Amino acid sequence: MEKVLICFAAALAVGLCALATAWAQSRIGAATAGTIAERPELTGTVIIMLAIPETIVILGFVVATMILNK
Amino acid sequence: MIVRMSKLEIAGPRGLLLDVLDTIRELGTFQLEEDGAAAQAAGLPASPQPQGADARTVTERLFLENIRRQTSEIISLLPALDIRENGLDPLAILDTIAVTASRHLATCRELAERYQALQREEQELVRYKVLLSAIDRLVKGQDTRSGLEYIGITLRDPSFVEQLCEALTCLVDGECTLTTTVADDGTLIGLIVTTASRAKSIRQLLSDQQMPELPLPESLGRLSLPERISGLEESLSATRRAMEETVAEQDRFARSWLAFYRQVNQWLVERLALLSVTASVQRTGMCFVIHGWALTEETGVLEERLNSRFGDRVAVEHCAILEQDLEKVPVALRNPSYFRPFELLTRLLPLPRYSSWDPTPFIGIFFPLFFGMMLGDAGHGLVLLTASLLLLWRRPSGAMGDAARILLISSSYAILFGILFGEFFGEAGGRLLHLTPILPERSRAVIPMLIFSLALGASHVVLGLLLGLITDIRRHKRGEAAVRIVTIALIACLAYLVTAYIYPSPWLVTRPVLILVGLLLPLLILSGGLLAPLEMVKTVGNIVSYARIMAIGLSSALLANAANQMAGLTGNLILGTLAAITLHAVAIVLGLFAPAIHALRLHLVEFFSKFVEPGGKRFNPLHK
Fold this sequence. Notes:
The complex is a heterodimer of chains A (70) and B (624). With 70 residues, chain A is mainly alpha-helical. Chain A has a domain at 43-70. Chain A has three helices and no strands. Chain A has helices at 2-38, 43-51, 54-69. The mean pLDDT of chain A is 88. The interface between A and B is medium-sized, with 15 and 21 residues.
């Protein structure tokens, strides 16, 4: 039972963070599509901006790994 | 590296202004200062000088602009022949050119209009020929001398044929025939044969039904259908002959004048560019002063050239770059060949200010390192290295060439870290090749890799803060320098405390460090204000962000291992090999993009924000 709860906690840590990242990226993606349409020279910067919310899921992944390695 | 700039003032008699500007443009190493502040300091009228008052300059510009417009039009109207230019100086015969150009422009326009009219006529005749050829097929076999009338029509849709037949039957009660055929261009053609008395009412019906009779050129309009066909052939031949004559005439004209007008046009473009630049130059009734920036290493050549051409009539003076000038100094980047491809990545950032740092060398050192640590597989690195070599084999230029060189360097680091981690297409490959992991295995030693990533992040961020500190000291910003010193000290204390927590030891005493943190926090608020602790938290967040090196590295290793396991599950050598190739291909593509984007992000967001001051103006020298 304890192992199930540990796995569930790890899954929650990474799953909720992934949802949050997806929501943030969807908002940024919509805005950046408009940006690229008007200023294509900002494509590189836009890709970097899209990667910014990935910190959330990466930290969630780190937390999940730490939970599983406890 | 940001290239050193010199602030120069070039002064001379007003009559030499255009010649001096021309010499400067030839060298292409001097950028004009467009701000009038420097001029005001020198006691000269601020730029822009009211150009409306200088009627002579305005008249000259209008005169030259008019000739340039005419010559451009002449060149565009003539055939683009490859003719060698002659060495005539347009300045000496400018008035003659103005007169000749208007006359020649009229000739060129007339020739071009004539050719266009003939071209339109030819297109129409070709179409008539196609349609009448179709009608000719219908006419053949009928007695053309029986006094019958022939009416040719085009039908938009085959369904109209039946409707038309019914309408004609009602109208003329069988005193006509309708035959159809398809022309060479796919148009459906109809021919109505009727008596002369019925022709008028049929034409009225066609007009009501919006099916006009095939129009013909006026010259053929009064002829009968068979005569029209033969007349059309003759008109087409005559039109084509006239077109050939017009082209030959244009060609003769171009061979006589095109090279001359090309040369005049080029001279005018350069002359007008020079005149437009004079708006940024400060002038009095007698002299001019040009303020601007030049690459320090090129100033000697500039002075030498001006001296050899104008002697002591033109003076060049070096001015000191003051604190208030720093924001106006244009920025030019120049890096050694190893770092130059990485300028592709720094171009994603706004240009740094002159007093700041060029981020290219730092990205050149750390980007491949982070990429290698995240990918960390010798097999995947080898595939990417081969891909980059194949790209470079084609000798690409520009952004593609730079990207291939970055990939070459980064994949070499991936191979190096793959050997250190003992991974070659996953851990199984490493074991097959007897690769002994020198560093801990990424898929098992998660916590040590996390600590290593955070330690690397702390070092990287502290390096950024140190570089920012150097900039602050150079620019005498004591307050900001103090904040950076306290921040660095706090990071060092935090690192010590975390180490003491993870690896408890009697040698690592925490109490004095905690007291030090307690003393440093008020100092931070005193030096940086109430928001300074928030900045400190942000800096700690930046360090934590480096955990992605471990996270992406771990996922990369697990993906490669999963590919090997899934290939093994097939139980068939061929299927297993195919599955392994496909899955590793996916892992390589992911392993190329994810580490590249995240390594770049660590630089742009976490590292450069500590020391790079954006807002520089690109060095844009006058050049031909």
